[in-house]
């Protein structure tokens, strides 16, 4: 597993590329990460979503199995987003700013 994170709004601090994904999570949640990876590798699942509060941020975390054209597992993509501003939306916006 490799990861790339290049954002000024980074939610989770990341260390060097090449570190196993299990070591990027708190030890109390490693078993969840390992179960998710097993499910992705076996084909049981192709995605999983989580949402947690971190301070004033409401963090939406999405994991996607990445597969080749034959459906063979290649790795996992993790996407994180602070959705607190989205949850605060009201009404509609139909025109560009």
Keywords:
alpha+beta; three-stranded antiparallel sheet; globular; 3 strands; 97 residues; single chain
- Separation of the first and last Cα atoms: 40 Å
Helix proportion of residues, in percent? 10-25%
Structural category is alpha+beta
Number of strands: 3
How would you characterize this protein structure?
- By secondary structure, the protein is α+β, with helices and mostly antiparallel strands.
- The chain contains two helices and three strands; from the N terminus they run αβββα.
- The chain has a three-stranded antiparallel sheet with strand order 1-2-3.
- It is globular, with a radius of gyration of 16 Å.
- It starts with 29 loop residues before the first helix and ends in a 10-residue tail after the last helix.
- The model has no long low-confidence stretch (mean pLDDT 84).
Question: What's this, in brief?
Answer:
With 97 residues, the chain is α+β, with helices and mostly antiparallel strands.
Q: How is the secondary structure organized here?
A:
Elements (H helix, E strand, L loop, with lengths): L29 H13 L4 E8 L2 E11 L5 E10 L1 H4 L10
